[in-house]
Amino acid sequence: MLGARQFIRNFSTSKVSWDKLKIALIGQSQFGAEVYKVLKQKHEIVGVFTIPDIQGRADPLAQTAESDGISVFKFPRWRKKGQVLPEVLEQYQSVGANLNVMPFCSQFIPMEVITNPKHESIIYHPSILPRHRGASAINWTLICGDKKAGFSIFWADDGLDTGPLLLQRECDVTPEDTVDTLYNRFLYPEGIKAMGEAVDMIADGTAPRVVQTEDGATYDPMMKKKVAEISWDQTAESIHNFIRGNDKVPGAWAMVDGQEMTFYGSKLWSGSKPDGSTVDIPGMTSQAIVHNDGLVLFGTDGKMVNVGQLQIDGKMIKASKYGQAGDDVQLELTEEELAMADTIKTIWMGILSREDIQDDTDLFKCGAGSMDVVRLIEEIKEKCNGLQLQNDDVYMATTFAEFIQMAVFQSRGGGKKEFIFDAVHTQSNNMDLTIPYQLFINNEFVDASNGDTFETINPADESVICKVSKGTKDDVNRAVQCAKEAFYDGEWGKMNARDRGTMMFRLADLMDEHKEELATLESIDSGAVYTLALKTHIGMSIDTFRYFAGWCDKIQGKTIPINNARPNKNLTYTKREPIGVCGIITPWNYPLMMLAWKMAACLAAGNTVVLKPAQVTPLTSLKFAELAAKAGFPPGVINIITGSGSVVGQAMAEHIDIRKLGFTGSTPVGRTIMASSSANVKKISLELGGKSPLIIFNDCDMAKAVRMGCGGVFFNKGENCIAAGRIFVEESIHDEYVARVIEEIKKMKIGDPLDRSVDHGPQNHRAHLQSLLDYVRVGVEQGATLAYGGKQVDRPGLFMEPTVFTDVEDNNFIAIEESFGPIMCISKFQDGDMEGVLRRANNTEYGLASGVFTENLSKALRVADGIEAGTVFVNTYNKTDVASPFGGFKQSGFGKDLGEEALNEYMKTKAVTVEY
Ligand code: NAP
């Protein structure tokens, strides 16, 4: 940048009063055209000198000037054998310019022209001179890893970029910048403005001429394909700089598998090494990895770079598809989208100056260049409802048919735009974690309306993980409003069911890709043992999204025979429609899985949603929101409001525009929700508490009954809604069963949930641990025998010993109330008293799950028939599956999660009767 000391105020123009300048504009491109538009506002453009038409198409500068009736000259060249062409010089002189302005000029302009006007010539150069003189300045700024980029306007010289400086501007280079982003966000828009300012300074006599120093000067060669071969013998950052510095032109390349492969869309990769297939790249220290999000390359420092696209044999492909056959789904176009396709065809006709645009017409093979890409994007934005495409989108879909598919996909919200949000960056479980911490409304992470936050705690050591926004009633209102707009007016409401499914599959894939990060977050936020979090909390969440994604295009009504009204006939059919804006409120025991069980069905049915996670475990819901935005869910479809039940949950239950509320939590809160939901008679489903009986007969497979009985109680440290809350054991095997259970417990390893060998992690939060200790105290006070455990573990964190009570009487508090912790309550029943034990098992207000262990099939089936519970496990326990309906009876609530039945919870049925 020009420093004060550098200024040699050797003005070329004596201070004159403001006067319109007579400008000759020498240059080309859209940039030239925009500079022209700025300058003509205050000055007189006496002539435009540009390049000849290419394939009958005039340069944008020529087009703009011609439409204003300005004289436009299109010289193929200005000189021959080093001598200016006299006829060219004469025509140039005829316009009588007193300043030459050269915004972007690819031709060599002779010094006779440069120095001809009174004020001589100024020229734009996209680097901070004297650094990166030469024709590929932006490329070199990136290749050299410069932290600053910028441009210079200088007094033109003989083409070596050494003339005195008039004005410079600079900006920071971010690790994500490419040639395109630097140009589009800074060099282009600021450059146009600065050219106007520079000319004004000349007009009012204040334009400096600062002699360029040679300190830090470089002259960099033009980047051409032959010098853009990647050397793998450098760090990941240098490889990234080289690739992005050549993105798009000329494209950094390497020989892979005997073919020239060009790499685009480079990003530094900070996550763990992705799973995928490997590719040998000669010279690279490790094998590259093709994975769901691209191709990971390795530098000599072992760090990684991810590229998004590859060009092989002239064809661009997604790097994630390298080595695979194409499997792109063809979108079916709605009428509105067909009209958009027609508009786009007209735009292509204009850009390519040809009438016949066929499906296989290729934009670039028909002569389009990079400025045409800019024009195409801008025209589409202007004429197709603000549809914002990116340069990459155009380069990846070069034929007309591919382009229409891509544009429609993007218009439905499947955008690949970079999603920027504030996040907490931390490390745990040997990985980098990126944790969104704000409310997610309309696809943006935002603070709560009053700025309030709360701390979320790691129960393994009670440390603070981060602060999270604490939503308000106003935030709920805003989220509901956005969800309503998304449902009634947005892309989601218009999307066909199959595309909805495709989007849900994409989200499931992204969750899969991030499963280790999600499982780590679940582990540190809820105390879940990591391996269980990976398999169940996250694994089943992914399965749930895949399962319901498959349902999207299989939601059908019926045709129903009704009485005909003679002489006419009738047809009655039903349609199953989404309800609208749904609310979901979840508990803390399986934070992401409870979200998935409800939200996947809710979205598959076509609704939009506002979800409140439990305040003590907000993190995986927020991470999920990030992934949903990245999967392309349109704004407003998914909204997450973190905060308390009494404020956020209550506001949702009472909200007039939430037409359905799915709730999982305790029975007392379920009752409150039922009352609050009466405000607008909303449809509700309640998955509430449980005290699930497990009956063990003396003819059972004992080893299995012990193992599964322990799993039934201690799985997820007992924080399991279907936990076996009461175990009834037949008298003749009771003592052996108790002894074997205690042996089994002694083998359980208690400790850091991130340790892969640990079985039993900390309880979810301090208040819960305290309630469990109180529960044990009451059990002892009422006379049950504490056979094992019962205390907090003597170590930091919220660990509770796995606990066993025996001699539990039916009227004991611990026989009636749910503990929701690792506490086994065992009661005896008399040998052979099947009716008696069934009566006792059903003598509860809950009815969520149940189990029976016996080798006798008819006993098992009689228990399954007689037990009043939504789920019965026979000779197994905890075996839930995404395809099997799940939900309770009695005060365990009503409505189902999972399976086809879950869809009904989020749909309404319309009956249509036609007379014909
Ligand atoms: P909870 O206290 O009932 O809380 C559940 C959710 O409701 C939380 O997000 C809570 O917000 C919110 N809430 C609290 N008061 C509210 C109100 N007035 N209006 C609206 N929402 C309100 O239950 P929990 O302690 O988180 O979870 C444990 C319970 O869930 C156990 O009873 C367990 O059996 C049950 N559960 C049942 C199933 C099932 O499928 N049946 C599955 C899992 C768990 P906060 O953030 O303020 O707590």
From TrEMBL:
Q: Where is this site: Essential for catalytic activity?
A: 161
Look up and give the organism this protein is from: Owenia fusiformis
Q: Where is the active site?
A: 125, 687, 721
| Keywords of the record | NADP, One-carbon metabolism, Oxidoreductase, Phosphopantetheine, Phosphoprotein
**EC class name:** oxidoreductase
Q: PANTHER family per the record?
A: ALDEHYDE DEHYDROGENASE-RELATED
Task: Specify the protein name.
Answer: 10-formyltetrahydrofolate dehydrogenase
Family in the record: In the N-terminal section; belongs to the GART family.
Q: Which residues bind NADP(+)?
A: 612-615, 645-650, 665-666, 818-820
Instruction: Give EC number(s), comma-separated.
Output: 1.5.1.6
Q: Give the reactions, separated by semicolons, that this protein catalyses.
A: (6R)-10-formyltetrahydrofolate + NADP(+) + H2O = (6S)-5,6,7,8-tetrahydrofolate + CO2 + NADPH + H(+)
Asked if the record carries the keyword Cell inner membrane, the reply is: no
Q: Name one GO cellular component term.
A: cytoplasm
Domain Carrier: residue ranges: 335-411
Task: Please list the GO terms describing molecular function.
Answer: formyltetrahydrofolate dehydrogenase activity; oxidoreductase activity, acting on the aldehyde or oxo group of donors, NAD or NADP as acceptor
Looking up InterPro entries in the UniProt record yields: 10_FTHF_DH, ACP-like_sf, Ald_DH/histidinol_DH, Ald_DH_C, Ald_DH_CS_CYS, Ald_DH_CS_GLU, Ald_DH_N, Aldehyde_DH_dom
- Any single Pfam family the record assigns to this protein: Aldedh
Annotated (6R)-10-formyltetrahydrofolate binding sites: 107-109, 161
BP-aspect Gene Ontology terms: 10-formyltetrahydrofolate catabolic process; one-carbon metabolic process
